[in-house]
Amino acid sequence: MKPLYDGKAKTLFPGPDPNTVIVFFKDTVTAGDGVKRDAIPGKGALAAQISCKLFELLHNAVPSHYIKQRDERSFLAKRVQIIPLEVVVRNVAAGSIVKRLGLTRGQVFDPPLLELFYKSDALHDPLICEAHALALRLATPHELSQIKDYALQANAILKEYFLGVGLKLIDMKFEFGKTPDGEILLADEISPDTMRLWDARTNESLDKDVFREDKGDLLTVYREVARRMGIL
């Protein structure tokens, strides 16, 4: 099949009807705005299966584009128009915000901190405020309110779930899309590619930071997350 979209970590193919797509997970992993890149056999399958389980976990609380898992590397989803916003919910200070705001790594945010980034490769996904999002017409005030509510609800559910399997959800990037009739849905993926997870006891990274910072074998880390989730 000819792809509809070929991204850094996923490829979208036409679904069985015009209102659906197949989300296929590649073994590619990138960091540093795509500067650092590698292919790790097996990584795509783990990210796909983790995403499917987490979308299913959120099913009754947050509407999403996820329909069902197809195989170990893909799932069927509703076709949506992606809203060019990355919504990052932070429970603990880590990554870019530590340097940006002079915070201490590990500082807890209570309540969680929500940040918006403009999805633009040309501009390198800059941090923006709500007024910017509205001025750029990325979303209406009502849509932006919905997006924020959904992101915070999803974060709360995922945070509790991961604590139950010995993991801390440090932060998480959410993306949203709109159906042809205007419904806002959680979209993209939910995997260690798009979140930070630390071991609840040791604070060891169990996410893509292992690749970003050359701290170990990424596949081993993703397998450990999948094992704790009961996937492996």
Question: Can you tag this structure with a few keywords?
Answer:
alpha+beta; 232 residues; 6 helices; single chain; globular; 14 strands
Give a quick summary of the entry:
With 232 residues, this protein is an alpha+beta fold.
Number of strands: 14
Count of separate DSSP helical elements: 6
What level of helicity do the residues show?
A: 25-40%
Secondary structure category? alpha+beta
The proportion of residues in beta strands is: 25-35%
From N to C, what is the helix and strand string?
EEEEEHEEEEHEEHHEEEHH
Q: Any idea what the shape is?
A: globular
What integer is the average pLDDT? 96
Low-confidence stretches: none
Rg of Cα set: 17 Å
Largest sheet: 7 strands, antiparallel
- What is the CA-CA span between the terminal residues? 30 Å
Which helices and strands occur, and which strands form pairs?
Blueprint: E1 5-6, E2 10-14, E3 20-25, E4 28-31, E5 36-39, H1 43-58, E6 66-71, E7 74-78, E8 81-82, E9 85-92, H2 96-101, E10 108-118, E11 127-128, H3 130-135, H4 141-164, E12 167-178, E13 184-187, E14 195-199, H5 209-212, H6 218-228
Antiparallel strand pairs: 1-2, 2-3, 3-7, 4-5, 6-7, 8-12, 9-10, 9-12, 10-11, 12-13, 12-14
Helix pairs in contact: 1-6
Give a verbal description of the structure.
This protein has helices at 43-58, 96-101, 130-135, 141-164, 209-212, 218-228, and strands at 5-6, 10-14, 20-25, 28-31, 36-39, 66-71, 74-78, 81-82, 85-92, 108-118, 127-128, 167-178, 184-187, 195-199. With 232 residues, the chain is α+β, with helices and mostly antiparallel strands. It has six helices and 14 strands. The longest helix is centred in the middle third of the chain and has 24 residues, at 141-164.
